[in-house]
Amino acid sequence: MGGEMIEDADAEVLSSMWPVDIGNEARKQFNIENPGMGRDMLKDVTIKEDPSVVDFKRLLELTNYSEKGSSQLAYLVKHWQYKHVNTARLINEELDILNKQRQEVELKKQEILEEHQFEEERYTGSRRQLSVLDEVCDIWGRVPKRRNDVLAYNKKLDIDAEYGTVIYWKERAIQLDKMLEASIHREQTLMQKLQETIKNLETKSSPVEELSQILKRADNFLHFILQTAPVVIGHQDKELRYRFIYNHFPSLEGEEIIGKTDVEIFDGDGVKEIQDFKREVLERGLPAKREMTFDTPLFGAKTFLIYVEPVFSKEGEKIGVNYMGMDVTDQVAKREKMVKLREEMAVQKAKETELNRTIHITEETMRAKQMLATMSHEIRSPLTGVVSMAEILSTTKLDKEQRHLLDVMLSSGDLVLQLINDILDLSKVESGAMKLEATKFRPREVVRHVLQTAAASLKKNLTLEGHVGDEVPVEVIGDVLRIRQILTNLISNAIKFTHEGKVGINLDVVSEKYPGFREEQLKRASLIDDEQDNHSQHENIVWLRCDVYDTGIGIPEKALPSLFRKYMQASADHARKYGGTGLGLAICKQLVGLMGGNLTVTSQENHGSTFTFILPFKVLLKQDSGSADEMDISDGEAVAVSTKDEIVGSFLFKPRKLIDSVVRKTKLYRSCNYGALGTSNQLSEESDLFSSNYESKKSASPPGVSANSDARCSMAEAEGPAEQNCDIKVYGFGNANKRDEECTDAKQGFTVHKFDNSNMDHCRIKKIDQSECERMMSADGDNMAISDKCHPTCQSQGHDKENGNAQCLPNSRSPKILLVEDNKINVMVAQTMMKQLGHKIDVVNNGLEAIRALQHFHYDLILMDVYMPVMDGLQATRLIRSFEEHGCWDASVVIRDEHATPRSDLSPYYPAAGQCRKRIPIIAMTANAITESAADCLASGMDSFISKPVTFQNLRQCLQQYLPC
Amino acid sequence: MESDRLQKLYIDFASVVFREGFLDNQYTQLQQLQDESEPKFVLQVGTLFLEDSGKLINGLRSILDQQDVDFEKLDACVRKLMGSSASIGARRVKNVCMAFHNSCKKGSKEGCLKCLQQVAQEYLLVKRKLETLFKLETQILAAGGSVPLLSQ
Questions:
Q1: Residue A61 confidence (pLDDT)
Q2: DSSP-assigned letter for residue A175
Q3: Helix-helix angle B91-106:B109-142, to 10 degrees
Q4: Closest-approach residue (CA) in chain A for B91
Q5: Where do the HPt domain residues begin and end (chain B) (predicted)?
Q6: Contacts of A578 (CB under 8 A, 6+ apart)
Q7: What is the pLDDT, as a whole number, of residue A22?
Q8: Cβ distance A820 to A844 under 8 Å?
Q9: In this complex, do A927 and B82 lie within 8 Å of one another by their Cβ atoms?
Q10: In this predicted structure, what is the pLDDT of residue A623?
Q11: pLDDT cut 70: percent of chain B above it
């Protein structure tokens, strides 16, 4: 029973710490020689079997001297001692018990013997059996019961014989003897066992063996744990020489490491740092962790998490460092990637926020601009009312002071109107709503016309001059309205800031490509219609450079940078002195930019400024223009005249006072009704510069005929070889605009004018008086109405033409306007307004009728209602534009037309393509002038729009803009 | 003088009409168009407007009376009325027409009926005003005066 207990005790002591032996595979990582199973490790230690691999002596020293090592040892010894003391105690206890039992058994034996003696005596004398038995039984009860199994000895004696008989007692004696024997035997066995145990204890349980066992288990455990772990464990002495290293990546043999420092072993990035780090830990005496990146030739770029702790001797001296490193390259890479990603995300997010803010701001700005535009539009309508009322007022009888006040009122009103128009223009450009047209135009005409217009309103003693280079094409394609706007703006600016000297325009071809040339810009600028691409093989790009120069006050250098900014003027002083909104140049700049060019300025203070812009234009190649020539080649004279017209490249406008006097004296001048209502002397040209040969040609032929030929040549838009024929410095009429050349020369000027006045009514293609109008209204959209009415007149016109009769000439004096409107009240109002403005208009009721009218007559301007029955204004405009482009009407329109007017004498007469191909300005009349519908109008090819109801002022502005004469 | 009194009456009445928004600046514009060559222009246009609008409103009513309302046709009529009223300066009629137009676009018969009622009412109101104005104008002209220009 004692043996069992000893085993229990044994198990209790050694159960917890280490796992059972787990075999000895994969030990190579340890640079320690593995002490084989069951070998005494300490023996090996003393023998120093592998000094080269591990500095065992050092390890022993370490365990002996370092605090950690000694405490470890002390613990182990203590443990062992405790175990043995415990075992000894248990054994002694057991011994005590056994001894006691033996004593008792002997005592019993003696008692029994005595009893037996007594029995024999009793045999003779007294009998006390029962008490003895009781006592016997009690003996066992007094034995200390340590274990239950001891109770086995208490079992009752089983005796068959009757109590009290001799047999009984004999049996009992025998049994007790047996028991005694068994007891003695057990005692002996126990003694034997005890001896054995003591012997075993002496041989087996030496502390060294225990220790080595423990160490072995620890060793195995470490191997088990570390065999695949990416760690390096090492110990270095205080000189940081390796004394021990375990390396999962054994790229070096142990011999190359032990006894060396990091620096001696490796080279590369991070080696010195780790050495320093270890030294630092050693010096500070505190453990530390750090992540270090190495890049050594030996194992490449790797990142290690290094833990270094100092090792102290028992005396507390530092004797070295333990260090542990774990390869965290992948983790670091991942982490860095994460960080990077996070950073990128943060950046992305920041960008997004920024973008959102920008978008928000942009939206706000757009909204603000939209608001401004809307506001401006809203302001414009009532303002025009004010200004037009003032204008009307100025025609009434006023005294001097009233007139003065009214003048101020008018000029202020005009200024505000100008400002609002500028704002609207700017917002149009900025919002991208500004669409550029691509139309044929003649640059010379534009320059001339701009100068003429400027000269007309010139109040200063200035000379206006223009020069167009010979190589500038006769016709180019671009947005003539915008170019005219830019030129007008620049010229009026120049005039404003010039008090004496001259203001002029130079137009030349730039031979080399404009340096800032950008293809897409050009595309955007000039290829508004995709259809235009189809023709692009017949077109060349020409870059025109336009200088607008003056001899004015100039611009100080410091003001140049802000010159093109909105609402900026050279200085506040200028603004006071010269007025203006500061928007003009900004608009010019934007417009030029929109067309793919650039606007620059050079200036010298007090000497003048030059604004220069370079723009790309498309040019039709010769074969195209040649075909245009052919159409009218029959009219030889016209061609000849027109060729001369085309190449005139210089214009000069002297101060008007001078001209006026000349005009009055000589009466030999050419008047042009450039002014609003054809007052003949509003603009004139120098008579002395009047071309003599031109004059002679004119005078040689009857006036009517020559005028007619002029008119026809203009219709033809003929283009010929550039023939220099220019002592004509001033040329008062051109043929880009039909009316221009029909502003006739001096000899006919007055006649025609008078003629116009007197015969106008007879010559009108369609005259609509009140009653006729009403009659037409009552026809209520009858398609035939207009064609019926048109027919006879048209015929007569054709007849006139054939005969070269000048009868129809006066028509050309005043522009022909077509009103397309279905609402008779609107018609009535518009008509009356036009009448007041000095125009008579033709009226048709829907888009289809408008096209019919166009098929028979030429119009200079169409006012088109958008919403109409049968065919709306947008569709009609598209058809008209398509005709202008391709020279033929859409099939649907033609067929319907022939059905409607089946007369054979009419059908063949379709106007010459050249005549109608000129782009007719079409003005929409919209019920709501909000941007969307305006955009629709512009998209359909309309040039502008008037919001309904039409007002006097609206109409007047529109006529001024689109009928520049 | 009779014409002076009439003129004053005319101005007073017209200013009320203007203030209440029955007519706007456009009417003034029409007046300005009236001169020796067109002495009865406003009267002519106005009469035409009243006749035309009366017919149009009847037309609107008959379209709306039908089981299936042809909103496109209705809208065309409304647009026409809107254009006429804008041209003559009958602002309140025009404003109702705009609402009417929106109802047409939405295809709301209920809205259209409501607008029709309103437009008919406004039409009657402006008709009365215009007729009064025309009567006064005729009287002024008859008395040898000239119709005073109106401003808002």
A1: 67
A2: H
A3: 160
A4: A949
A5: 38-143
A6: A496, A497, A569
A7: 47
A8: yes
A9: yes
A10: 45
A11: 97
Q: What are phi and psi of A620, to 5 degrees?
A: -75, 135
Three-class SS of A3-39: HHHHHHHHHHHHCCCCCCCCCCCCCCCECCCCCCCCC
Q: How far apart are CA A726 and CA B90, in angstroms?
A: 59
At A357 the three-state DSSP class reads helix
Give how far A865 is from chain B: nearest CA, Å. Answer: 10
Facing A826 at nearest CB: one of B32, B84, B89: B84
Closest Cα in chain B, distance from residue A828 (Å): 7
pLDDT on residue B139: 83
Pick one of 3.40.430.10, 3.40.50.720, 1.20.120.160, 3.60.120.10 as the CATH number of B2-143. 1.20.120.160
**Vertex A77: Cα angle to A75 and A78 (nearest 5):** 65
Q: Residue A75's closest CA among A221, A222, A264, A210?
A: A210
One-letter amino acid of A693 = N
Per CB-CB distance under 8 Å, the chain A contacts of B33 are 829, 832-833, 836, 952
- Other Cβ atoms closer than 10 A to B9: 14
Q: Which of the residues B87, B91, B105 would you substitute to probe the A interface, choosing the one with the greatest number of A C-beta atoms within 10 Å?
A: B87
Residue B40 to chain A, least CA–CA distance (Å): 11
Amino acid sitting at position A829: V
Q: A with B: how many residue pairs have Cβ under 8 Å apart?
A: 70
Mean pLDDT, contiguous 10-residue spans, chain A (965 residues) = 44 46 47 45 43 55 69 80 88 91 88 65 45 44 46 55 78 89 92 87 69 84 79 84 76 70 80 86 87 81 87 84 86 89 92 89 80 76 79 81 85 80 75 74 85 79 86 85 85 85 87 52 45 50 88 81 68 60 78 86 86 86 44 37 50 58 36 36 37 40 40 38 36 36 36 35 39 42 39 38 38 74 83 82 87 84 84 85 78 51 39 55 71 70 80 80 70
- The strand pairing partners of A608, in sequence order, are A604
CA A315 to chain centre: 70
The DSSP line for A523-574 is HHHH--STHHHHTGGGEEEEEEEEEEEE-SS---GGGSTTTTSTT--S-HHH
B151 — contact with chain A (CB < 8 Å)? yes
B112 closest CA partner among B101, B123, B122, B120: B101
Model confidence, pTM: 0.33
> Among A791, A780, A796, A801, which Cα is nearest to A870's?
A780
pLDDT at site A602: 87
ipTM tops 0.85: no
CB contact at 8 A, A921 and A957: no
The full set of domain ranges for chain B reads 2-143
As a 3-state breakdown, chain A gives helix, strand, coil percent values, each rounded to 5, of 55, 15, 30
For residue B87, give the nearest of A774, A826, A952 by CB distance: A826
Q: Which two tokens stand for residue A545?
A: 């450079």
Q: Alpha helices, DSSP H only, in A436-530?
A: 443-456, 480-496, 519-526
